[in-house]
Amino acid sequence: MCAAIVISAFIAGIILGSRFRVFVLAPAILLATISTVAITFANGVSGGAIVLVVLAVMVSLQCGYVAGVAIAYFAERSKLSRRTWRPSPFY
What we know:
By secondary structure, this protein is mostly helical. It has helices at about 1-20, 25-40, 45-80. Helix 1 (about 1-20) runs antiparallel to helix 2 (about 25-40) and helix 1 (about 1-20) runs parallel beside helix 3. The mean pLDDT is about 85.
């Protein structure tokens, strides 16, 4: 269960990183923390394990964000190299 939560946080981080600026991380971390605590508490996980799962989710979300930014950067950079150069009509 905990691995699924961490993997989904990583995928959510990739999506957020490819679409939004860094300011989206604070609300995303807050939402991920609240939902992780609720899910793990409902499944009867102990308090210490909840803290470790929340930390793992926060790290996974941030690593996914960095991966998403890198993917978006290289995708945009590859588009620029395919453009053909055209001389200016003013010369």
